[in-house]
Amino acid sequence: MHASLTVTMNFSAAHRLARPDLDPATNSKVYGKCARPNGHGHDYKLEVTVTGEVDDRVGTIVDLGVLNDLLRVRVIDLFDHRFLNKDIEHFATTVPTAENIALHIRNILQAELPSIGVALQRIKLHESPNNACEVFATITPQTETDRETTESLALA
Ligand code: NI
Fold first, then answer.
1. From ligand 1's centre to the CA of 79, what distance in Å?
2. What is the pLDDT of residues 126-145, one digit of tens each?
3. Domain that holds residue 57
4. pTM here?
5. Residues known to be catalytic
6. Phi, psi for residue 17 in degrees, rounded to 5
7. Which helix (H) or strand (E) holds 84?
8. Spacing, Cα 151 to ligand 1 middle (Å)
């Protein structure tokens, strides 16, 4: 039998929303207070839903401790108490909106979760009690490298 399992984790991080190619006035028009130069913080809540086959002997799709360890090492340790724009290379060039953070976590987990026998189904990232972003797994995990390969093939 197939089942899904959702786990929740928390991390705190700072970010600043601004595009380097826009001037300060335009950035504050687009991102409002979030474009202020010295950044601000959020207590993020991350829900991760994985899917897999229930092991009849134990009645679970994955060992919860193993899943939690993977999420801690591959996501929480990288994001918790960081300034996302500076501490995570991806966000040096990608504005760390809730949407872009969720997509980045999705790409990391799509690649990592098969190693423990489950697949990613969905991620919901709560940035505050008032807003959350939900993204779903793509059928074929698309990494930066995949995208570059696809682009170079398209150009060839
Ligand atoms: Ni913010």
1. 14
2. 999 999 999 999 855 444 45
3. 2-155
4. 0.87
5. 34, 81, 127
6. -100, 110
7. helix 84-87
8. 32
